[in-house]
Amino acid sequence: MNKDEEKGIEISPLVSKDSKPSAVLDKLSGEKQDIKDAAFWLFMLFLASVTMTVGNKYVMRNWAFANTLTLMQNGTAVLYLGIGNYAGMMEMKPFALQQWKVFAVSSFFLAMQILTSLKALPFVAIATVVAFRNTCTVVIAVIDYFVFGNKFNQNQVLSLALTTAGMILYALQDINYDAMGYLWLVGNSVATIINTFWNKFYITHYTKELKIQTSYGVSFIQQVETLPIVGFLAIMNNESAAFGEMGPLTMAAKSMIFATCLGGVLIGIAYPKCFSLVSGTSVVVASTANKAVSILIGMWLFGTQLSFLQIVGLLICIAGSLWYALEGKRK
């Protein structure tokens, strides 16, 4: 009998007689793999987000064919979704004519969202785009409250007020102000707000209430229906020379066009993966961080300068938007 036994102290072994060491090791191995998977897909989300923000601005400054670029990006998404469905990797339920009619509206506004964003990017800083997107959150919340009767707690109201104050401070001190760029962003905001409420009702109605279509199916319908819209606009804007103009571009510009086509697909894969591996709050924080990094890369790559008050306003705007998103998750 040892001294511990004499004192009546019970010594617990690291692994009890009834436990299986292999099961413990398997569990630890599984947890490590989950951490690796989460890190990988959060990085993929970061890569896709930065590519679509910074990459689109880079492309539009060197190859100003917004409709053709949208046609290529959305066409790549349609190809990916179609192949995924055919291979059995993505579930899509039978398509009815009514579905195509209903989502034709959201497809139109989706096309307008993409095009107005692309048109604005050559004129404004990436920080301005981020500030406008955060302002859309405020407008959507206000409409939600007065039109649809959605209630907000005190912290949500304060966060929305903070976002608004930050946007006003940023706009008043915008040393990169461009009337045309702001006009395109206003159009982008209108399209975003309308599309948000249309999708909020109909996507929920079709995928969760009636369950007659999946989210992949809805995305496929929307992407397909954008193609004739942007194709028509490309013809009307004399973009027939777009591919001919691609020849003289630098290899970096050509590579970026290709990267943005893949980026749209990657961001559609990365978001669901991230939500399945980490909490929704973590995804919100990661998305906000991605915006901040995109702004910094844009400042370095395009030589964008922001005044001190602009930076303060932008930080307030982003902080308010993040606070609102986190409060929404908690609520």
TrEMBL record:
TM stretches of this protein: 38-59, 71-88, 100-118, 124-148, 179-198, 218-237, 249-271, 283-302, 308-326
Sorted UniProt keywords: Membrane, Transmembrane, Transmembrane helix
Coiled-coil positions: none
UniProt name for this protein: Solute carrier family 35
Keyword check for Membrane: yes
Location(s), subcellular: Membrane
Main location (coarse class): membrane
Pfam family, one: TPT
Organism: Seminavis robusta
GO cellular component: membrane
Sugar phosphate transporter domain span: 40-324
Source species taxonomy: Eukaryota, Sar, Stramenopiles, Ochrophyta, Bacillariophyta
Keyword Transmembrane helix appears in the UniProt entry: yes
Membrane topology per record: Multi-pass membrane protein
